[in-house]
């Protein structure tokens, strides 16, 4: 919508300010005069006619003189406002009447009066009148008045517009042109104004503002130049600092990766040491049995040279049978331990995605780490169904499980001699499983529970904790296994780590 300019607004304001009140006053005067004329010229005369006719027609109605009564009616009908006159006798029959139906236009008024003769009602007379002649006269008068008002309005509007144009519109337009120069930034051209009224004072204020703006802009330009120099210096300093920070961050990431690798190797090294210690027992027994058998063979060979007795031979065979049985049990135990360790180490080293039973992986991890766990008096209980089949990364899952158990023994059972760890699993649906590791340890303080998965956060710094165990768990669960891990803990009661894992891990490099 196009906005009105100053001249148009002035014109509309003058017209509305003069014409609208004139129209309203004219309408009010017309209605007032119409009501007054209607009362004076129509209603009053109508009542006069009906009273006069009722008195004058009483004798003719009493004498049943119809022609005289009709003459009286016709005399009243000569009035232009009267359109119908009816004279009735006492039986309500029409005695005389007059009517002009062609003049039945405009507002119709009626009146009725009883005819009384010698104190007795002998009939009635009714008159109907129209306001049309009176309205035509009023309209004619108002036409003349409207023409006079219209001419007066034209003169008034023209005079006011002339005054507004000379005293307000033109000065405001000139002032607008000067302010446009200020808006364009032209501040060296003063505002020349020679009036002492409000517009003159406004122009003087604008000129003072122009002068102050020029000073402020000069100061601003100087400040901007200084600010640009300072920003450039700060930018160079920040760029240098960012470069140093980038190098430090890169070095930190490399250090973090190296620490993660060493943490994994340390876990694997501890498992190797435990397996080696566990292998010493069956292998030592085997060496002892073999040495004993060698002595028995030497003895039987010496007796054979002198003459072998049956009792010696029976005793040798009995000892040989027991020795081979001991050798078979211990070699089988060592072979099982090596096989399980080999599977665990292959899974952790190769990161191959393959199908496996969850309970088998848990059993292998616990069996391989059993030498370390047996050094403590804590109990580990497993409640995992035999039919939970996963297609995932068993090495990473075993590392997560081992780290959770180690974390419980290192932190949860710090001041506890005998503790319990429960490993539970259940199928949530066809796509997801839930794995829980719960301990009866000391619990995690509320101020630390939101930070336990952060790298290098530990409550045992310098006392066997590196702060990477749970961070490794979180990284493996969320990236490699494609699942989620949450923790809930109550101080003095224990902690529960809940893993929500997909039955099919995402196809990615572990």
Automatic annotation (TrEMBL):
It is found in: Membrane. PROSITE patterns: HAMP (PS50885), HIS_KIN (PS50109). InterPro entries: HAMP_dom, HATPase_C_sf, HATPase_dom, His_kinase_dom, HisK_dim/P_dom, HisK_dim/P_sf, Sig_transdc_His_kin-like_C. The chain crosses the membrane at residues 12-31, 145-164. Its EC number is 2.7.13.3. Keywords: Coiled coil, Kinase, Membrane, Phosphoprotein, Transferase, Transmembrane, Transmembrane helix. Residues 274-505 form the Histidine kinase domain. Residues 206-265 form a coiled coil. Residues 166-218 form the HAMP domain. It catalyses: ATP + protein L-histidine = ADP + protein N-phospho-L-histidine. Gene3D superfamilies: 1.10.287.130, 6.10.340.10, Histidine kinase-like ATPase, C-terminal domain. Pfam families: HAMP, HATPase_c. It comes from the Bacteria. The keyword Translocase does not apply. PANTHER family: PTHR43065:SF47, SENSOR HISTIDINE KINASE (PTHR43065). This is histidine kinase. It comes from Deefgea tanakiae.
